[in-house]
Prior knowledge:
With 327 residues, the chain is α/β, with parallel strands linked by helices. It has eleven helices and twelve strands. The strands form two sheets. Strands 1-4-5-8-9-10-11-12 form an eight-stranded parallel β-barrel, surrounded by nine helices. Strands 6-7 form a two-stranded antiparallel sheet.
Amino acid sequence: xxxxxxxxxxxxxxxxxxxxxLDPANFILPMFLHEDAVDxxxxxxxxxxxxxxxSLVREAGEAHALGIPAVVLFPKIEETLKSPQAAEACHGGGxxxxxxxxxxxxxxxxxxxxxxALDPYNSDGxxxxxxxxxxxxxxxxxxxxxxxxxQQAICHxxxxxxxxxxxxxxxxxxxxxxDALDAxxxxxxxxxxxxxxxxxxxxxxxxxxxxxxxxxxxxxTYQMDPANTREAVRETLLDESEGADMLMVKPAGPxxxxxxxxxxxxxxxxxxxxxSGEYLMLKSAAAGGWLDERxxxxxxxxxxxxAGASMILTYFARQAACWxxxx
Length: 327
Ligand code: PBG
């Protein structure tokens, strides 16, 4: 008789046959920042804070000391700096470039990743530049947006970003950003592409954190339809051929099949983003005493890794790193 249970009989045996392991080195911590000198707890994401520049540097250092190699920055931009052309996205003295410089000066070994998209800077709240037709219909302009994204990526690279992460889902942006970076001699700056980013309701709490929800319409003409997975393969092949260094799937937990499919399609490293709504679901169930937070968070991260993600962007990065260290 076959007895698979023999391989599960003790912690020692289980540890030998374990197929997937979690390590703080797998985590990337998303961090929110703003221009204010005070830190603000984010209502829509209990336990997550929007940091001042000084606090951002301190907190990133603490995360790095726990073994987390990278952070990704999400700025809240003041309303007065937002415009239809999102010019602030490319301003060398802006909040993100200043944060990159401060982080790299304080923590040279920390990998700094930036989000390349226009939504925090765009008065329309879309990831790209919006055109309105006579009847009030909205079009998100692809090629015009890609030009701005290239300038934004160069602006981040000049400030010292290690990786730029285009999250906008415009067509052709990976190749255009690669060319733009190379032309400025930033051949060593990596591109982590949001390859399969779905038009997901799981981003709701994040948009609350940054006041970055679209003022009109939705993101379905550029973010992917949650019903599709072959389309993720198409995006994977394109991003790979356009020169991306790392590919990302987002959200993560509800899209494990997509992670596995992207993993099987590419030889590039795959990342997955456990987004704000996933965070909020686990956090609120734990706060209600209905789920064991440590167990459920580590299981959710393990599942994402098992599906094929080597890197996980997660708001639980620091907490999970502590739990793994104390194991
Ligand atoms: C914007 C961006 C979003 C997230 C990361 N970058 C929101 C969106 O596309 O509307 C969501 C992250 C999260 O929900 O945690 N380019």
